[in-house]
Records
---
Amino acid sequence: MNNLINLLPAFVFLMVLLYVSYYIQKTSSSDRSKNFVKDYFIGGRTLGGFVLAMTTVATYSSVSTYVGGPGMAWQIGYGWLYMAIVQVVVVFLVMGVFGKRMALVAHKIDAVTVIDVIRSRYQNDTLANIAAGVIVLFFCATMVAQFVGAAKLFEAVTGFSYLTGLTLFGLIVVVYTTIGGFKGVAVTDAICAIAMLAGLAILFYSMLKTAGGYDAIMTHIQTADPAMLEPLSRGKMPLSLYISQWLLVGVCTLALPQSVVRSISYKDTKALSNAMIIGTIMIGAITLVATWIGVLSKGILTNPSIAAYGGSVDNITPRTIVACMSPFWAGVTIIGPIAATISTISSLLLTGSSSIIKDIYMNVQAKKGQIVTNDQVKKLSMACTLIMGLAVYFIAIVPPDLIWKINMFAFGGLETAFFWVMIFGMFWSKANSKGALWCLVGGVLSYCVTMALGIKVFSLHQIVIGIGVSLILFLLGNSLGQPTEEKVLRVFFPDQYED
Amino acid sequence: MKESAKFKQANREAKATVVATILVILFWCAAGFGLADSQIMFLHTPLWVWGGCVGTWIFSVIVAVVLARYVFMDMSLDADKEVKDHE
């Protein structure tokens, strides 16, 4: 089945994204010559509701939505779907809590990145630079994991080698992110989100057709593995896992920098309101269908032992696709997971690049009193995006072991780093830089160490330790630190300074 | 709208969002775990799956609509522009 017809649909799709990005770059060249940083990193604050919703959802949905999640659902059953659906809160949560206040502040201080806001709120360069470093580090780890997951899936479905897949979509996403900037990322993300949903719909339909209908699959599950019909799956799905997931992929996603940055990029408040609705519909639809497919694949891959499928739940999705579809339609369906992967990569890459250029390099130059011209910034930003992307691509060619663990690990690390720093920074005027610094450093360290040693509290995920320790350290540091200057507080909390 | 009023409104919206999230969590518990012992099947699928998964999604969409249409207020994000308007 190793023929070009497998490859063609994905290739055409990627070419469309490349063209869209090129077109956007061409039309925004006049904005870029005026203020490159603003156009390149937040699209000149022009996102409308639909694109804002789609880019938030596409950034959030990753290759795990297609591979890890459905694979586990094959093993656990509807309990996994019940757990995955907690993600429906993430879009309205981040937009509702931070959307307005971040935008109001960002317009006042002309912020382009989340770090810009943190720097001017806490007036502390050490804090801002460490935060930028944390972003770069954890983002790179996530990007490698995404590339590896998607390339493996590609290999299993199309029969082309791991390297062929990785090179095809890896290089294209790096190139289109580099030229398209934030606007390019946002629009291609929107296309990707639609492609994801379409790919899932095709797969869902083919599965039902192959297995002889939904009822037939459910009847099979009822007799073969009735535990799949219980939320706790007869002990395979403990309550602690539900609680962990509510924190890890639900509530604590609130302060993820790649989501929060979208709160400073929209056009007007109408766009924000519309995006909350559209985004909640979309994220729920993608999560429901993708994970439900995983449950139903039990009716396709009927051997009860995972050993029959290569010993890894990651093989469930590709084998289901191959079992249900002709090579051409399998080639169409693979667009879905590729779209999920590259839409996450593009956003992380651009935010990572903004951390290096805008948050670290330009700040250092400004401190030295050196002026960086618009043209220099343009060259440096694009070069940085390109180099970072290529570095991630090369690491993914020979991936480190445990890459899957790194993905969720990085997710929790970012949450630990930014949760309290962002919430207290935006909503508590007494929060000061010492508290934030202790919280960031201590929280991330305690999270990483307990993760590495496998220490858990009440068998909950280490995010609980990270969030708990960082809260305590914030309050402790805060009580010892100096309050923030009134000049700054008047910018961030004008509601508390009414004359 | 005055600047301080905008920030106050943004605070109200943030608080309402937190309340909305808590409501979704409660709904999720009630419509999923709450129905787990029921033996009723709908389309060969246990009732708690419909309530806890599909139901939570629909409930969240309703929550988002209520927030967006009834709690959130439209405002200009640029402080300077409005000051100029007054002058």
---
Amino acid sequence: MKQLDTILLIDDDFATNYLHKKIISKSGIDTPIEVANDGEEGINKLLSLNKSINNENATILVFLDLNMPVMDGWGFLKQFAIIRSTVLCNVDLYVLSSSINPDDKARATSNSLVIDYYPKPLSIATLKNIRSNYL
Amino acid sequence: MTIPSLYFKLIDTFPMACFLINSELEVLHINPSGLDMFGMSFTEINTKLVSFYFPQVASCIQQEGVPVKSTFADGNGNEQDVKLQYSSIDGNIALGMLYVTEQSHSKQSIIEQQKFNEIILDNIPADIAVFDSNHNYLYINPNGVRDPDTRKWMIGKNDFDYCEYKKLDQSIAQNRRAIFNKVVQTREQVEWIDEYHKDGKDIYVMRRFYPVFLDDELYYVIGYGVDVSELKRIQNIVIYNEKINKLILESASDAIIKFDSESNITFWNPKAELFFGWNSEEVLGKKVFDVILTKETGNTYCKHIKDYIEGNQSFVLDEIVEISGIYKNKKEFPIEISILPLKEPNGKISFCTFIRDITSRKQKELQVTVQNKMLLNKNIELEQFTYITSHDLQEPLLTLMSFSDLLLEDYSDGLDDEAKLYIEFINKSAIRMRALVTGLMEYARIGKRDGIRSIDCNKMIEDVSNDLSVIIRDTGTEIAVDNLPHIRGYETYIRLLFQNLISNAIKFKKKEINCKIKISCKENTNEWKFSIEDNGIGIADKYVNQVFIIFKRLHNESLYKGHGIGLAHCKKIVDIHNGEISVKSTLGVGSTFTFTISKNIQ
């Protein structure tokens, strides 16, 4: 079983990030949480985390929002596909969206980098379920 | 007396009949031509004197060296006219040569010839008559007058006698006489066509008077008549067809221009005048492509025509092509052109070109292009709208809901009941807002099509009823369904349409009685017309037109829950099936929703 090292929240909405941090802690998960406010920042955070962790057994859990300024979720996925080989750590990626359009879900889940898609906000049950995959 | 054999040999070489005779008019020798003339052997001929055969021989001997007319009777009783010439030998009057210098045919052969002619004349499929110089009949063949007695009676008579005998109008005889006189006067044949109406048929006879002159004197006139009714009938059809064709060519909505193999214009119809501004007189004989096309296109077409004539059919002339035509004032305009090569009966090739002015069509096409572009922009806007409703508007609502939940959860102890009620209101409003926005997004997405499928409407109503089974059971609703058709449409949306209309009927039922719904369908030529009838509360007249507007609600939330989305969805679903939706309702009695689904959805 993989070891969970860091949770990276990528979302431009301050309230949402705050809420998710709150829900993560309510779920009893004490993994360190990092926050990025758009896709570009997300990529940079991911690269620096990879550098500092530098362990192929460690996992970075990413919750990615789709609708963001500067670089949106789709842009992040595109960029991540390019730099993926340079990342030593495990990156498990979930897309989170407030979108109620079924087209968005279909598009996100068809991306091979995406493990799953969840509507916002994350629920405690979902989080506990995801957490159970790791040490 | 002995005759030198030299004489015999000499006369044998003469081509005309020749006899050696003595003063007693005995025949001493006959050359081969002479024997041919008699048809007898020398010994037979020798039994008689030469005067027996040629009665005028004595006068011929007297006028030695001059041709003399005589008759000739051969041994078989045939007679013919000949000319004889006598020449004595060496001045010896006891011995001379008799030549036949001219020989007419035998009377017998004339009679045979006449018989032969009569057979021909009697059987020839034409009227033949021979007139003397006074226009009296000398001969009529059976085709001319069928009855033999009449025919015999006619000889020596004329057309006036015939008209009187047959009690006919004399004008026919007068006309014939006038023509006869003209023939006599001009000494040339005259041809004309007689027209009769017999047994309801038009009969045409082509007649001819042909004068025969002998020694400059009118000998007789041959009348000749052939029934040309069939030819004339065909000719009339041809003339009629030509008239019709001309009418068609002149009233056609296309410009029709004919030109010869040299590209010279030979025909130019009124539409060509209208399209190109030149009238027929101005362009006939001119080079067609110089007149109607721009220089460059004209040259190309000249080459196509040349290629065609030379047998290189690289270009299909009679295919419709869109190019630019040129008006009299040099202004270009769009045309559709096709050229039909025509093989004339004389083997020459000519061409007929059909041209349509497509200016207005081109304008319309341009309009459609512009409209399509506008529509495309609208669609992009709509997609944007869908994105906003489905995403941007959701996020703040989620935050509202999440934090009001958190507030109640984490700070419940520190809040009094009124504060909790306020938070409740915030939460409920957010939930309602979310439902509205969701409805709006779904409404916008209805334009987004999945595939058109064949739909069994009976099965679909069954499925919808199953989905709604709980509420149907709880409300005691009865749904009566006629036999519904298979239609073509967007399955998901048709299903939503039925579901919305059925659940609406149940939702707006009267409290005191059970809901009854009747679903039926009528087939029209181009569409299916569905009706869904209920016995519910009905809709007041003044609201009937508003029910299909999105977010329009006629009732207070506390009475009938809803967001005013269902019927707006229904209208949009019917719209994308090229149909119409309407409602007829009586307040307090019930409503009937009627919608159509086109049979021809693209």
